[in-house]
Amino acid sequence: MKWLFITSQFPWPIIHGRWLRVYHLARTLVQMDESVTILSCMESDEGISAYAEVGVGVERGIGRKHIDKGKGRLLFSPFAYDEEFANKIHHNSSGYDVVVLCGSRVLQYADEVATSAKIVFDMVDDPFLEFGRRRLLKTEKLIDRLRLQRNQWGQANLERKMLKRVQFTSFVSKEDCESFNQRHPSLQTMFVPNGVDIAYFNNPAGELANVDAENPTVVFTGHMSNPNNETAAKYLVQDIAPLIWKELPQVHVQIVGSEPSAAVQALASERVSVTGRVEDMRPYLWNAGVLLLSMRSGTGIKNKLLEAWAANAPVVATPLACQGVPAVDGENLLLGNTPAALAAAACLLLKDREKRKQIADRGRETVVSELTWDAAAARLIRAFGG
Fold first, then answer.
1. Rounded to 5°, angle at Cα 322 from 137 and 269
2. Beta strands 272-276 and 252-256: pairing type?
3. Mean pLDDT highest for which of 73-82, 133-142, 150-159?
4. Is there a single domain that holds both residue 173 and residue 289?
5. Would you state the pLDDT for residue 207?
6. Does residue 56 sit in the same domain as residue 151?
7. Can you list the positions of beta strands (E) in 179-287?
8. 144-190, pLDDT tens digit by residue?
9. Roughly what angle, to the nearest 10 degrees, separates helices 339-351 and 353-370?
């Protein structure tokens, strides 16, 4: 089959989860003898070359960024409508069997997709689950609550108008599927969890890293301009780390990831490193005493968890960081709901090598057996009878 992935921003470099998902699904579909093309805005020569290397083509879109501010297509729309991009989709989406609309911003162009194509709306995370049930309840300022409520109205209107063209809506976690199905019980959804490149993240040393007794590390990774990651980093440094330092004062915290916000940069100290973008994330995972996923907001599968498991890093996490994956407390990670519980779990692993090895090895086994990109791509192919 011929697949067209439509994204509002060209998915390169891979600096956040949605682009990682597009790249690996496209690459893996090609490996399964499917034909895949990307249609987006403002392609870069580097990005086109990167996709060409894995056999993915690029349908030239528009030579600028998607319009971020301006009038929406529908009432209360949370997204600006880009008429030039709509025309590109209309003229370049014919000849494909399946068109994948990547994210809610792209759903507004469903009517422009050629009528001969079947459409997958890859919503990834359900915004009503994140903004409605979590963030809205925690927002205290009236103006912020009104803004979030307005976005919900706009999202609901967008779904009501545009999902008529869509055959399947896909999500990375069952919780997101269930939240969406409460609004649209008659529509077909797919649970398509993210995978991880287990060969790429495999530790070449083939064993658990030794904890440096003089400077053991607790690591947090992510795209650090993301508000959910910013919140998690602050939670780690301000609430959890002080409890770790009471028991293990030599521990060093590493906040690793691109585009750290001002609030994240302000966390840096003698005991805390904020790296910014690094060329290769893997050494930080391979050498981590503990990877601590202190997520307090956000939906969907956390790629950082899959990468840590694939890298054989021992993980401590909040339950929210484990959505959509077969996480078992005490087996492939340790869970904690409070700063005290998370700190205690981290200290336990830093002091007990055998427990660290057990947790790390079971995490690696989990992704190898259940969470590969091959499995994710196969779900998409089966949905369309390929």
1. 80
2. parallel
3. 73-82
4. no
5. 61
6. yes
7. 189-191, 217-221, 252-256, 272-276
8. 667 777 778 888 899 999 999 999 999 988 888 999 999 999 999 99
9. 100
